[in-house]
Amino acid sequence: MSHETGIGDVSALDASTLAKKEKTVFASLVVDFILWIPDIIAAILAGSITMFADVVKCGNELLATFFAYLTIRKLARGGQGAYDYGMGKFETVTSIITGAVMLISLVLVFYTAITRILEPEALHISGVALALVMMSIGVTVNTWLWRKNYRIAQKEYSPIMESQWRLFRTKAFSDLSVLLALIFSIVLHQFWWAVYIDPFASMIIVGFLFTTGYRVISASLPDLLDKTLDESLQITIIRELTEFFSEYDAFHGVRSRRSGSNVYIEIFLEFEGDRRMCEVQEAIDRMKASLESRIPKSSVTIVPSSGPCTIPSKKRPESSPDEKGK
Predict the structure, then answer these.
(1) Where do the domains of the chain lie?
(2) Which uninterrupted H or E stretch holds 296?
């Protein structure tokens, strides 16, 4: 019945998947940093509040991607010596950090946008050319990274890859919003209200940040708090147990949780008292193998049990007359 668990005990395929994730996140980190420096220069030259907001947002997202890379790297190196249940929680925490960074960026972008609406200022035409080039590159590169991270996330559930593709989708749409805002601000500069295009466009970025940040955090918190598996997986467990109904006498409960991309399931079953342990173990092994084949990345533990675990109240025995007299 005993078996090893943990993300360190990965197969060659799992190791290959982790290596691919690590390379993808590292590529995202490098590209983010390379594009960030020219963005800062372009924002200063153009005097665009939307670009400034985008630079602040990208800086925070760069930090989130760095944490994601460190986590994936740690996962790829393994942690079975110190973490018996693997390091999936690191993935979940990193995903929450990514979402939190998005919400922090939201506050900064919203504040700078309101400031520019109250004190409007025209763009510096001399610096807009560089800004247009950088935003065009940003839209292209971030869309590519979005699709690449999305494909990896679809192959196997991972909190980090889920947060990464959502992050780069937000970046792609944000850069597109900045690009359109710059174009319209230049084309329509002769109108008095053109100075408001830039700050109002940054509100679109606020919307993207709020939506994506909320989804990332709300999707990761249940796993961090060890919420039970979703209904579809619970139905799978029940169906599998039904197929082996003749192997056990009673069902006393199931506990389940998700840790990163791994699923841990504990099932408590009662067996006939006169069966030999080797027969019970054989039945357990067959049920375990069947469940793990139906639920990818799962680790199933079947615990023989005689009923719900109860702890009787302890009463102090009354002293005998002889003891009292001593």
Answers:
(1) 12-221, 231-304
(2) none
CATH no., domain 231-304: 3.30.70.1350
What is the pTM for the complete model shown?
0.56
**Number of Cβ within a 10 Å radius of residue 157:** 15
Can you tell me the distance from the alpha carbon of 148 to that of 164, in angstroms, rounded to the nearest whole number? 10
Q: How many alpha carbons fall within 13 Å on the CB side of residue 301? A: 14
Asked if 149 and 165 touch (Cβ cutoff 8 Å), the reply is yes
Give pLDDT tens digits for 240-252. 888 888 888 888 8
Q: Hey, what CATH class is 12-221 in?
A: mainly alpha
Three-state DSSP class for 248? coil
Residues in the chain with pLDDT < 50?
1-10, 13, 80, 309-326
Distance CA 273, CA 279 (A): 11
User: Rounded to an integer, what distance in angstroms lies between the CA atom of residue 210 and that of residue 206?
Assistant: 6
